[in-house]
Amino acid sequence: MALVNENYLKLPGSYLFSEIARRVNQFKKDNPEADIIRLGIGDVTRPLVPAVVEAMKTAVDEMGRAETFRGYGPEQGYDFLIQQIIENDYKPRGVTINMDEVFVSDGSKCDTANFQEILGLGNIIAVTDPVYPVYVDSNVMAGRSGIYNEKGQFDNIVYLPCTEANGMKPELPKTRVDMIYLCFPNNPTGMTMTKEELKQWVDYARENKSIILYDAAYEAFIQEAHIPRSIYEIEGAREVAVEFRSFSKTAGFTGNRCAFTVVPKEVMAYDGAGKAYSLNSLWLRRQTTKFNGVSYPVQAAAAAIYTEAGKQQVKETIQYYMENARIIREGLVEAGYKVFGGVNAPYIWLKTPDNMSSWDFFDKLIRVANVVGTPGAGFGASGEGYFRLTAFGTRENTVKALERIRTRM
Ligand code: PLP
């Protein structure tokens, strides 16, 4: 008799997006004429930039000729891409990363979900609340949690509330934790941390021999010069932090799939006797066993964002989204909402008026303004009373949606 992995049975159904779809469909059925605008999506809408398309086409042609055909590539990624990552994403920020510390992959979702595999099951994990659900669910599947309780949280996971009271910035855990998931710029709150704030986390991790799993998937949206783009800009971070980056939102690769994870050689985890093991070696072992690399045309396409033309084109796309973010943020402020994010991130996190629940606000927004967003409660208990709008829509829809919110809500 095959036994099931009972950890999977602890997971509640993935309720958020199916419930949104159900309510939108019902509304459409009842109001077939309504012109619905979706500002709830976390997916990009702008196409790949020309430099990326050209590079991908050239690479496909190479694959079609015997002289330039490539089979399996290195599991860690091609040197031509890793070199560009180091030269463009890290060197200009004063950060030294070595070639064998970058692992190219097909997404930050899988990397943030899989990385826990090389760490002990007895570790206590800490996540912010609200949170990108992948960090929690992947640890539940692995067996690092208790049951899903009546508060809508898992036992044995440390939740760090991010609320209006702390300006959406998590406070250091009161009890010892071993693995800390941080995401900045944050999904869903759109907030960032300063170097000084991030330094407290690095210091905590160094003191407690914990690991910080730092998700910087939205790094490209940072506009303010003083905000760190990488956790390695913080002194000591190379000893304790793993960083996840993605081309998904940076360059419209959500359907193309390319990302990378940085694992400095100094990051260690320990056995029961206190002996240290390099996570870089363990992650290499894991990837070479379970992963066969990202396709050559996709890596060639990713490398094209670091050419002069590619940089310029990608920057224009990001500015397009960030102008949407500005329109949403300023429109909401003008309409009297309390808002977070939207300055260095494509997400705007608003406090629902009159203590309305996230779902009540969702219903009112679609009914009155015909605009769809994402209820904050779907990201965790502390997201209740908040609501997420995204800047990934078209300009026309964004302007129209804000006009409706200002005049109708
Ligand atoms: N990390 C965060 C915080 C995200 O919001 C997302 C996607 O929405 C991802 C990672 C996934 O990125 P990828 O497309 O590289 O898997």
TrEMBL record:
Similarity remark: Belongs to the class-I pyridoxal-phosphate-dependent aminotransferase family. LL-diaminopimelate aminotransferase subfamily.
List of residues binding substrate: Y15, G42, K109, Y132, N187, N292, R388
Record GO biological process: lysine biosynthetic process via diaminopimelate, diaminopimelate-aminotransferase pathway
Role, per record: Involved in the synthesis of meso-diaminopimelate (m-DAP or DL-DAP), required for both lysine and peptidoglycan biosynthesis. Catalyzes the direct conversion of tetrahydrodipicolinate to LL-diaminopimelate.
The Aminotransferase class I/classII large domain, residue ranges: 35-405
EC nos: 2.6.1.83
Binding site for pyridoxal 5'-phosphate: Y72, S108, K109, Y132, N187, Y218, S246, F247, S248, R257, N292
Protein name as annotated: LL-diaminopimelate aminotransferase
Keyword Oxidoreductase: no
Subunit architecture: Homodimer.
SUPFAM superfamilies in the record: PLP-dependent transferases (SSF53383)
UniProt keyword terms in alphabetical order: Aminotransferase, Pyridoxal phosphate, Transferase
Positions where N6-(pyridoxal phosphate)lysine occurs in the chain: K249
Top-rank taxon: Bacteria
Reactions listed under catalytic activity: (2S,6S)-2,6-diaminopimelate + 2-oxoglutarate = (S)-2,3,4,5-tetrahydrodipicolinate + L-glutamate + H2O + H(+)
Pathway(s) where this gene product acts: Amino-acid biosynthesis; L-lysine biosynthesis via DAP pathway; LL-2,6-diaminopimelate from (S)-tetrahydrodipicolinate (aminotransferase route): step 1/1
The keyword Membrane is assigned to this record: no
Gene Ontology MF: a single term: L,L-diaminopimelate aminotransferase activity
Cofactor(s) needed by this chain: pyridoxal 5'-phosphate
